[in-house]
Amino acid sequence: MSILEMCQWLQDTPIGTSIRESTWVFPIIEGTHLLAISLSVGTLLLMDLRLAGFLFRSEPVSRVSRAVLPISSVGFAIMFVTGILLFWCQAVKAYTSIFFKIKIALLVLAGINALVFELTVRRQSASWDSDPVPPFRARMAGITALVLWAGVICAGRTMAYNF
Amino acid sequence: MPFHSFFQWCDSTALGSTIRDSRFLFPIIESIHILALAVLLGSVIIVSLRLLGFGMTQRPAREVYNTVSGLRNRALATMLVTGFMLFCSEANKCYENPPFWAKMIMLLLAIVFQYTVVRSVSRRDFTTGRFQAGRVRAGMAACLSLLLWFGVGAAGRAIGFY
Hints:
The complex is a heterodimer of chains A (about 160) and B (about 160). Chain A is built from 7 helices and no strands. With about 160 residues, chain A is mainly α. Chain B contains 7 helices and no strands. Chain B is elongated, with a radius of gyration of 18 Å. The interface of A and B includes residues 55, 56, 63 and 150 of A.
């Protein structure tokens, strides 16, 4: 079975079909996915702006992180669940859309960026935690995350179009 | 209805027809509109949660509010400009669209509420620490603010579904 056939099978399952053909469920899931951007990326960007040295400069990075990341995590959990459901009911459209592939690629890059930051610069954060402007690599991690998440949002929105 | 001729005029402007006739302008402007939504609502969420006693509790609400104000104001300005551009490209459609009217009414209420009640409640809040009883006014302002802004967002999405 090819990936395309698997996508076809997935969206033809009773759950996929019923979401796609519903009057209310699809718009509610889609609207939730859109508005949860505010909770996920909207709050995470405050942490990234702190890392980049633009906001909350008098606040240690670790405290901004502890205050903001739990909220962002709730947002990303909502994004993940609604995103899976949206893929489920229109898997073929997503799989054949170049913008979906771009979105997934940018999501993976955002994950790698966060992981590299956690495993390297963050490890030595004791030495720069309270610096108004963090070291170069931490600032780059913050700015890279901002750019990648903006790309994820734009690619996601553009999936609705066939150019 | 004085609105009707205004909508028709907007629809007929060069701005409206240029966006309507382009394959790329609408998606590009809409992407910017949504990026600004993330920034605007993210700032609203962080201040509202602070007023409710969650999130950045180690700083007074006043400081959290002041820190994100510039970001929020710029995001709102971006949303208003890009929103007006999108509106011009389909103003006649919007006139017949109930979610559009619901969005405009809630938007007006949200902006007024933001720059009167939320602003004054946040700026007068010098306390720090987790949720404290007796801060009913701040909590209510935060909840209503979230309700209004998310209402604007939900109605905005519903314009396309209607």
